[in-house]
Design a protein that fits this description.
Strand content: 35-45%
CATH architecture of the largest domain: 2-Layer Sandwich
Number of strands: 9
Largest sheet: 5 strands, antiparallel
Radius of gyration: 17 Å
CATH class of the largest domain: Alpha Beta
Number of helices: 3
Bound molecules: zinc ion
Shape: elongated
CATH superfamily of the largest domain: Aspartate carbamoyltransferase regulatory subunit, N-terminal domain
Strand order of the largest sheet: 2-3-1-4-5
Length: about 140
């Protein structure tokens, strides 16, 4: 077993694409005034050259739905008693709200204020999402 000596309990999000960590952190909605968060930018990685890394202390119930969309190659480890208790495999979420923005100028979501941008997964292999309102297709990562 691998020992993560820096935190006793929490969640470690590793292998985030370098430069993407701030975005990941923003979407996780962690209360940084109450929780200890370590954010490492541009760390050396054997696998990917450079990576970002986030460690969140004492929280294990983070909503990872959006993470599956914005960086599904990231690895997520749940730490309990200094060891990895669980490795989470990220998946593309079925539905995403207000992460992908519809770019169709005639779409009600882009033309009217106060309407949520809702996209539903239509093709997991192609990573394609369809706008709930206008049926425009957007590929995950291209928004
Ligand atoms: Zn649309």
């Amino acid at each position: 077993m691998v020992v993560i000596n820096s935190i006793a309990k929490g969640i470690v999000i590793d292998h985030i694409r370098a430069g993407n960590g701030m975005r990941v952190l923003a979407h996780l909605n962690i209360d940084t005034s109450r929780n200890t968060v370590a954010f490492i930018m541009n760390a050396a990685s054997k696998k990917h050259g450079r990576k970002d890394l986030i460690k969140i202390e004492n929280i294990t119930d983070v909503d990872l739905t959006v993470l599956g969309l914005i960086d599904h190659n990231a690895t997520v480890n749940i730490i309990e008693d200094h060891i990895i208790a669980e490795k989470i495999k990220l998946r593309l979420p079925e539905t995403v709200t207000d992460v992908i923005k519809c770019r169709n100028p005639r779409c009600v979501a882009s033309s009217e204020a106060g309407i949520s941008h809702i996209f539903r997964l239509v093709d997991e292999d192609a990573k394609e999402y369809r706008c709930e309102y206008c049926d425009d297709i957007v590929k995950a990562g291209e928004y």
